[in-house]
Design a protein that fits this description.
Elements: E1 2-7, H1 10-22, E2 27-31, E3 47-51, H2 57-68, H3 73-76, E4 78-79, E5 86-87
Antiparallel strand pairs: 1-3, 2-3, 4-5
The structure holds zinc ion.
């Protein structure tokens, strides 16, 4: 078993494991903050994702990179070169001045 990723982002961990399982890669998530004391509330709750079969590890790593390199909505927004208005990626022309996205 090999550790693939460590994150405090539970949404991301969930997305990653869903993706791995969809590819037929067995994985487990371990909670690093599960304390036997039961009293300490961690500020950041870390989770680690482990790939069970070591021969799946390279493929799992590729998938991890594919997911982390996806552009976020913030990065995909574009700024109009004519008026400076910022737009969501789904818009192809500036609503303010009609300038084309491709002209940016
Ligand atoms: Zn504009």
């Amino acid at each position: 078993m090999k550790r693939l990723h460590r994150s405090s982002d539970r949404m991301f961990v969930q997305m990653l494991t869903d993706r791995l399982q969809a590819e037929g890669i067995d994985c487990v998530v371990k909670d690093e903050n599960r304390s036997s004391m039961g009293e300490i509330t961690p500020i950041v709750s870390w989770a680690t994702v482990w790939v069970i079969e070591s021969e799946h590890y390279d493929r799992a790593e590729e998938l991890l990179h594919a997911i982390t390199n996806l552009p976020s909505l913030d990065e995909a927004t574009w700024e109009c070169s004519q008026c400076g208005e910022v737009h969501e990626p789904q818009f192809s022309t500036c609503w303010n001045c009609g300038n084309d996205k491709e002209a940016v």
